[in-house]
Amino acid sequence: MSRTYFFGLASISTAGWMLGTTLGAMLGSIVPTVISNALSIALYAMFIAIIIPEMKKDKNIIKVVALAIIIRSGFYYLPIINQLSSGFAMTISALTSAFIGAVLFNKGEAHG
Hints:
Elements (H helix, E strand, L loop, with lengths): L2 H26 L4 H25 L2 H18 L8 H19 L8
Helix pairs in contact: 3-4
């Protein structure tokens, strides 16, 4: 596959992401608070829907999710680091636990 193909693929994805973000920001100010709160909960539900089937296939994913919960709890309960926004703390927790999980539970699979 050529560079042009990947450039087009990345451009379309980026444009869609930007359009979706813009529409979300605009509609977020129009949508009633009740619906906005429900959509926030739906985001967590979608995450759980992705994780649960994978946890059944590989028990190491349970360890990674537990690690993410522990890290996130640290951001919430420890006074030194609870100054971060909730979203930023969640992102750091997810990326850190995913990195640690990739290092500890690497099965040596080659993807091509």
